[in-house]
Amino acid sequence: MIRAAIIDDDKSFCEELKEQILKLYSQFEVCCYTNIEDFAADAAEYNIAIVDIILDEGNGIDLAETISSEFPLLNIIFVSAERDFFQDVYKVTHSYFMVKPISDNELDRALKMCCKNLNERSLYLKHRSGIETIALNTVVYFEGILKKTMIHYADATKKLVNTPLREIEKKLCNSNFVRTHQSYIVNIQYVLYASRRSLSTLSADIPVSRKYSSSITEAMGKYLIGDIPADNDEHPVKRAPKNIELSEE
């Protein structure tokens, strides 16, 4: 799920922009902040920050510069009622600059740019000692073990983290990942073979349950090159599947 934050001291604008975003991208989770400190404390939880340049409590560009130094993978969209700040925003790495009032087309372009950037980004996990960054393109699959998650990497290493799998799933915005089972989330990029009951990766065969079959079909249709005969139990993938019937284990 992609989480976006709107930081603007105009509460009515925040709520209007939130509704506008959700009409375009209903799968997003959007929260509003009118206080800089409140957002700064929660910044690790978000993928996108939409920041007004002129705030009662300070300069939005300075806020973004501080936040991005700690969370460089956060996508920042600047908004302003004035075009005069067009040059100033380049002090900070950002994805887009929008001028109020914001049209649906302009907002859509900005959010699509952020989604593209997020495709191969990282996952932030909070620990008592700080925040850990997981490079998603190195992860083959996540395995839920009780209330913890084992991360299986492409180099065959593993790491157990205290975050439950359901929380991992909420944070994932990378469209390469798909849930196959109550205990597994798989990176489609590492799938070598597919069957009606499992997906084979570099390191393991991952079970597939009927509950998640439609999401797997959609993900494989986008990212795999191959054809999957319905009557085969296991085979190499050779072109994008169109209609895959996946049964329970």
If you had to describe this structure to a student in words, what would you say it looks like?
- The chain has 249 residues and is of the alpha+beta class.
- It folds into two domains: 3-118, Response regulator (Rossmann fold), CATH 3.40.50.2300; 122-236, LytTr DNA-binding domain (OB fold (Dihydrolipoamide Acetyltransferase, E2P)).
- 26% of the residues lie in helices and 32% in strands.
- It contains six helices and 18 strands.
- β4 and β5 (58-59) form a beta hairpin.
- The radius of gyration is 20 Å and the shape is elongated.
- Mean pLDDT is 79; it is low at 224-249.
Question: How do the helices and strands line up, and which of them pair or pack?
Answer:
Layout: E1 3-7, H1 11-24, E2 29-33, H2 36-42, E3 48-52, E4 54-55, E5 58-59, H3 60-70, E6 75-80, E7 96-99, H4 104-118, E8 122-127, E9 130-135, E10 139-145, E11 148-153, E12 158-161, H5 165-171, E13 177-181, E14 184-187, E15 191-194, E16 198-201, E17 205-207, H6 213-223, E18 235-236
Parallel strand pairs: 1-2, 1-3, 3-6, 6-7
Antiparallel strand pairs: 4-5, 8-9, 10-11, 10-14, 11-12, 13-14, 15-16, 15-18, 16-17
What pattern of helices and strands is seen along the backbone?
EHEHEEEHEEHEEEEEHEEEEEHE
What is the CATH H-level superfamily of the largest domain?
Answer: Response regulator
Strand content: 25-35%
Number of domains: 2
- Radius of gyration equals 20 Å
Our measurement of the CA-to-CA distance between the termini, rounded to an integer number of angstroms, reads: 27 Å
Inertia-based shape? elongated
